[in-house]
Amino acid sequence: MAEHGYDYDFFVIGGGSGGLACAKAAADLGAKVGLADFVKPSPAGTTWGLGGTCVNVGCIPKKLCHFASLAVDYQADWAGLGWDFKAAHSWEEMIDSIDSHIKSINWGYKTELRSKSVKYFNKY
After folding, report:
1. Residue 71 neighbours by CB under 8 Å, 6+ apart
2. Among 40, 21, 47, which residue's Cα sits nearest to residue 116?
3. How many structural domains comprise the chain?
4. For position 23, what pLDDT does the model report?
5. Where are the alpha helices (DSSP H) in the chain?
6. What gap in Å lies between CA 28 and CA 8, rounded to an integer?
7. What is the pLDDT of residue 1?
8. Among 36, 58, 95, 102, which one has the highest count of C-beta atoms within 10 angstroms of its own C-beta?
9. What is the CATH number of the domain that holds 59?
10. C-beta separation of 30 from 68 below 8 A
C-alpha cells in the first residue's frame, strides 16, 4: 500500500455481515484494515457483539426459536411412526442455548478478524 499518512489503508464502520466481509476482503488484498462496531445499549441495557442485527437480535435467534417451536408438531408426526416421546420444554434452557450459540458466532467473527490482522474497535 502507498504511504498516505493514515493509520489504516481501509477502515470499515459496522461489524455486520457486509462490514465483516469487506474488512476481510481488504485484508486479503494486503490493506492494513481497521473495523469499528458499537451498539448503543438499549434502555434495558441490551448490547451485542459482532455480526450485526441478523446474527444478534434478528434472523438467527428468530430461526432458532421457530425451529424449537416446531418440536411439538414433529412429536405428533413421529408418534405415527411408532416413537413415544415424553418431552418438556424449558424456556430458560432454550434462551441460554440460543444466547450461547450467538456468542460463539460473535467469537468466531472476532477470531477471523484477528487471524487476518484486522484491528477491531468496539467503539462508537
Report:
1. 87, 89
2. 21
3. 1
4. 98
5. 17-28, 52-57, 59-69, 71-79, 91-115
6. 14
7. 53
8. 102
9. 3.50.50.60
10. no
Give the span between the Cα atoms of 119 and 6, in whole angstroms.
Answer: 14
- Give the model's pLDDT for residue 87: 79
The answer to the question of residue 77 being in a domain is yes
Averaged pLDDT in 10-residue chunks for the chain of 124 residues: 82 97 98 96 89 94 94 83 85 96 97 98 92
What does the pLDDT read at residue 112? 97
- C-alpha grid cell for residue 31? 490493506
Cell of 107: 467469537
Of the candidates 30, 37, 41, 25, the one whose C-alpha atom is nearest the C-alpha of residue 8 is: 30
Domain that holds residue 48: 10-121
Query: Does residue 1 fall inside a structural domain?
Result: no
The C-alpha cell 450459540 sits at 101
Check residue 88 and give its pLDDT: 84
